[in-house]
Specification:
Blueprint: E1 2-5, H1 7-14, H2 21-31, E2 37-40, H3 42-54, H4 61-74, E3 79-81, H5 101-112, E4 116-119, E5 128-129
Parallel strand pairs: 1-2, 1-4, 2-3, 4-5
Helix pairs in contact: 1-2, 1-3, 3-4
Length: 131
């Protein structure tokens, strides 16, 4: 199974200070030994950098980028970076408001690429909620 991580799940995996770090690590550990692959895209990677700085986990973009690179290269589960060619016309029908746009886009990208969107957000219809 390939898992497209949303920004919050990616940050929770990387930063011990995240409120759901333990939850994300437990899920990650449950994937060890399987054929799982973790996936990022441009939106999740730049979102990781932006939110890591805003939340105070990182001081600047180069530091946040290095943290992400370290997570990906040291992971016992392989990471893939996939291209994204979807536009606004590809948003799922449930997307009505501004706060749903990125999540809806990631859900559509995951479905198009035969993956599951893994999230800590219970409000994304059809996504996998990390337990």
């Amino acid at each position: 199974m390939r898992w497209l991580l949303d920004v919050n799940a990616l940050i929770a995996l990387a930063h011990q200070g995240h409120a759901d770090h333990s939850r994300a690590i437990r899920w990650f550990a449950s994937l060890l030994g399987s054929e799982a692959r973790l996936v990022t895209c441009a939106i999740t990677e730049v979102g990781f950098v932006r939110v890591s700085i805003q939340a105070g986990f990182e001081n600047n973009a180069p530091d946040a980028s290095e943290t992400l690179r370290g997570l990906k290269t040291s992971s016992r589960i392989p990471f893939d970076l996939i291209p994204d060619s979807l536009g606004a016309d590809d948003l799922p029908a449930y997307v009505l408001g501004a706060k749903q746009v990125t999540d809806g886009h990631l859900l559509a990208l995951a479905k198009k690429s035969s993956m599951r969107l893994a999230t800590l957000d219970g409000g994304i219809p059809g996504a996998y909620l990390i337990p």
